[in-house]
Write a structure and sequence with these properties.
The complex is a heterodimer of chains A (573) and B (267). Chain A is α/β, with parallel strands linked by helices. Chain A contains 19 helices and 24 strands. In chain A, helix 5 runs antiparallel to helix 6 (164-178), helix 10 (294-303) packs parallel to helix 12 and helix 12 crosses helix 15 (423-429). Chain B is mainly beta. Chain B has a 13-stranded mixed sheet. A four-stranded mixed sheet of chain B has the order 4-3-2-7. A two-stranded antiparallel ribbon of chain B has the order 17-18. The chains are: A alpha/beta (573), B mainly beta (267).
């Protein structure tokens, strides 16, 4: 097969410990190798930055919730989006939509930014087929999906009995039949309480009927996760998202993880991934005295190695919020009076969708913007810090390069801060002005490559350029020895890589997509757990009594994920 | 002001997307450069010069100094004057949908008819149609909550249904008749119907004003008669019956007073 030599690029790679030295990267048969023959095709990367393909640990890019957003926001495809992007003949498919792009635009745009792996952050198990259909239709990027467990009837019933084995057996069954990757928890207990018109705003609020608390759900799922030895940890969206003064709830949630140790063979060191932490790091008692609590949150995170997090940066755009946190979306609609959509997924979860404008003229939006940046700038360990926008909740993923720019340039942060309508009030409510740190390219390669790969248990093949790893390589037109004086260049460069290689195949060359259908895979985890006859019986029973589909129709056939990459795990019995 | 004339020579088979026919796009360009502007027909890309003959003195340096006269059969051209901010466009005949969409300033005059979605989300300027117009005039784009925001849109003939949906500013004048659904979800702005209006006028309206000179087939049950008032509307002095509504909706308060949308029926 083909051989490629990337010559003389400034390589940033945590795994092989290279910090910007000029180095050659050799590729053969889709893997990084020590050397190639003289017949290898060469790519001249001198004066350019070379990094592994980036991984996005948390984005909503496929499935019923995303599609609901597409249905009820036709205006997002119109003047907010590129009206007819795809007719520009770079790619064969239309590229539509801004905050909720079509699957094709999703794949192309991630590819252009140098991303090769994206985690769909919330898969309702009942609609797993839809998620896999969209994943299959998304070009270029590898994907996986996290099924949601935090409001699942089985989980709540087993954990009420404190039965970890049954919980684990159920999780293993569900991950296998839905082709899921790990355990996602969204507003534990709260979405189920929403079925009664209630919510769980703290970790000890009881879930109606089930008589269990968010704390019990979270710890039970962490135990089950480590019992199963899954590659990823529990991935949690804690209670009380977006509420002023919610930082104690966030810290309480993180404290739940303190007594657990990771137990897996994938090199993962955390037991709890706190997602879109920005939405959970607020002080104040209402919108008037709303403020950032990033310092309190990061004081805790920095001291606790069992926690990883992603930022969830607000990008100050008009976007579409969508989450399995149904009650939150209702609350948001009552704030902005725009349209609202709600879905209940029987026995499992729910979701809501509301358009939202993060306006620079609105005080809380500006505080949210600063809070997200503060989290990344206060983080002492870039290997436990990941950059996301919780796409599309805090902003579309196509704004990642803009977030990189803000993190890498204090000047642009100061300019944005001064441009806010309430800049004085925003400055008082945040600490961003005091933070002089500018993220380096090496730290960026950690936050967008090595850290998510490690947190997802993929560090042996992804997120690095060491020999034997998958040949996913992004080359950006930025010279680390001559960093641009205009920070806008950073955004421009990271928005469109000069080259992208996916499994050793050239996808982008000279900034243009030249091969839009490279090999792409759906990652899922086949967790082995001791068979539990009671659980099998309970599953049968629930399908007979409650589900509107039969068990046979629920399971996702292999044809829905025709290019799987299956990770096998053994339970730590 | 300098004038450039474009004349349709090849009527497109499908529909031509003519959103580059604005003073903003033409300003400062030579006739050759104007002829090279990219147009779309279905999934294919063409140049403006493929369909239009460009003539006249060179256009002005700025949009405000530019006047465009569009001649020939433009019934298959959409989006003329879209997003224009200044200057003037005169269409001698009729044109298709989305004419003057999101227009921000300047003058747009269509001497024939326009089709649906014209003046969509209009923010400013003057837009006059001498003939009839279709549905969703001065409304919001499908799914959007930002209808007409400002400016004056005058249709001298009749209009179809759903005009002024989600309107929250500006003035929409219909000198003929209007069909169902007028000012639905409106949060501001003024709609004047000088002919008759069909039913469902002001449904879910929370703010804004609708004047109807002729008959209304059915009033919405959410509106309540308050009093007769003498008003001057678009130069016409008359006595109107005032109704407030839509009472079934959420209403904001201003200085302690509840704000309602209003319908005025000419007596």
């Amino acid at each position: 097969m083909s051989e490629i030599l990337i010559k003389n690029g400034h390589v940033f790679d945590v795994v092989s410990g290279v910090k910007g030295d000029a180095k050659d990267i050799a590729i053969k048969d889709g893997k990084i190798v020590d050397k190639v023959s003289s017949k290898a095709k060469t790519i001249d990367a001198s004066g350019k930055t070379v990094m592994a393909g980036a991984l996005d640990i948390h984005a909503h890019v496929a499935g019923p919730k995303v599609n609901l957003g597409r249905w009820f926001r036709p205006e997002d495809k119109w003047y907010r989006g590129q009206m007819r992007g795809g007719i520009v003949k770079e790619t064969s498919r239309m590229e539509q939509g801004f905050s909720i792009p079509s699957v094709f635009r999703t794949g192309y745009c991630y590819g252009r930014m140098g991303y090769t792996f994206v985690m769909e952050a919330a898969m309702p198990p009942l609609y797993a087929r839809h998620v896999h259909e969209e994943i299959h239709d998304t070009p270029i990027i590898d994907e996986a999906a996290l099924p949601v467990f935090g409001n699942n009837w089985f989980v709540m019933e087993y954990l009420k009995e404190k039965d970890i084995q049954k919980t684990a057996a159920y999780i293993a069954w569900l991950m296998r039949v839905t082709k899921g990757y790990g355990i996602k928890v969204v507003n534990p207990g709260g979405t189920e309480a929403w079925g009664w018109g209630l919510n769980c705003l703290g970790i000890n609020d009881e879930v109606p009927y089930f008589d269990i608390t968010p704390a019990e759900i979270t710890t039970g799922l962490i135990e089950a996760n480590e019992y199963l030895g899954l590659p990823h940890s529990v991935h949690i969206h804690p209670n009380s998202l977006g509420d002023p003064g919610n930082n104690p709830v966030t810290i309480d949630t993180m404290k739940l993880a303190a007594k657990y140790k990771p137990n897996n063979k994938f090199g993962r060191e955390q037991v709890l991934h706190m997602t879109h932490l920005q939405f959970h790091s607020y002080g104040g008692s209402g919108w008037g005295d709303f403020c950032s609590a990033s310092k309190e949150i990061m004081d805790y995170v920095n001291k606790h190695k069992e926690i990883t997090f992603d930022t969830g940066n607000v990008t100050l755009d008009e976007t579409t919020t969508m989450t399995a946190d149904g009650p939150f979306e209702h609350h948001l609609c009552a704030l902005n009076h725009l349209k609202w959509c709600n879905v209940d997924v029987e026995l499992e979860t729910g979701s809501g969708v509301v358009p939202f404008i993060y306006s620079p003229n609105v005080f809380p939006c500006a505080v949210q913007w600063a809070t997200g940046l503060e989290l990344a700038l206060l983080a002492k360990d870039p290997m436990r810090t990941m950059i996301t926008t919780d796409h599309p909740n805090a902003g579309p993923f196509t704004r990642y390069p803009r977030v990189f720019k803000w993190l890498m340039s204090k000047k642009t942060r100061d300019e944005q801060m001064a441009a806010f309508k309430n800049s004085g009030k925003v400055a008082d409510a945040t600490i961003l002005n005091e933070l002089d740190r500018e993220i380096t390219l090496y730290e960026l390669s950690q936050m967008t490559r090595a850290a998510p790969a490690k947190a997802l248990g993929l560090s042996s093949t992804r997120g690095g350029l060491a020999t034997g790893m998958d040949a996913d390589v992004a080359i950006y037109d930025i010279d680390p020895t001559k960093m641009p004086t205009d920070p806008e260049t950073i955004e421009k460069v990271f928005l469109n890589a000069s080259y992208l290689l996916k499994n050793g195949e050239i996808v982008i060359s000279d900034g243009q997509i030249v091969f839009e259908n490279p090999k792409k895979m759906t990652f899922w985890v086949n967790a082995k757990a001791p068979e539990n006859k009671q659980v099998n019986r309970d599953i049968r029973e629930k399908f007979l009594r409650y589900y509107t589909v039969t068990q046979a129709n629920y399971e996702v056939p292999d044809s829905y994920a025709p290019h799987p990459f299956v990770i096998e795990t053994e339970a730590n019995v | 002001m300098k004038t450039v004339t474009i004349t349709m020579k090849n009527v497109p088979d499908l529909y031509l997307e003519g959103d580059m026919i604005t003073p903003d796009q033409f300003a400062g360009k030579t006739n050759e450069e104007i002829a090279a502007l990219r147009t779309y027909e279905g999934r294919e890309t063409y140049c403006l010069g493929d369909n239009f003959e460009i003539s006249g003195d060179a256009v002005g340096a700025t949009p405000a100094e530019t006047k465009i006269i569009v001649k020939g059969d433009c019934t298959k051209v959409k989006y003329i004057g879209m997003n224009m901010t200044a200057g003037e466009v005169v269409v001698e005949g009729s044109c298709d949908m989305y004419t003057g969409g999101w227009m921000k300033g300047g003058k747009l005059h269509v001497k024939g008819n326009v089709d649906s979605f014209s003046g969509l989300g209009m923010e400013g300027g003057e837009f006059t149609v001498d003939g009839n117009a279709g549905n969703f005039i001065g409304a919001s784009y499908r799914g959007d909550w930002r209808g007409m925001q400002g400016g004056v849109l005058r249709v001298k003939g009749n209009v179809g249904s759903d005009i002024g949906t989600f309107m929250n500013g500006g003035t929409l004048i219909v000198e003929g008749n209007a069909d169902v659904h007028i000012g639905t979800h409106a949060e501001g702005g003024t709609i004047i119907i000088k002919g008759n209006a069909n039913r469902r006028i002001g449904g879910q309206m929370v703010k804004g004003t609708i004047y109807v000179y002729g008959d209304i087939t059915y009033m919405m049950p959410g509106f309540q008669y308050t009093k007769d008032v003498e008003l001057e509307v678009d130069g016409d002095k008359a006595v109107f019956a005032e109704y407030i509504g839509d009472l079934g909706e959420r209403h904001s308060k201003s200085k302690g007073q509840v704000v309602y949308g209003k319908i005025y029926r000419k007596k």
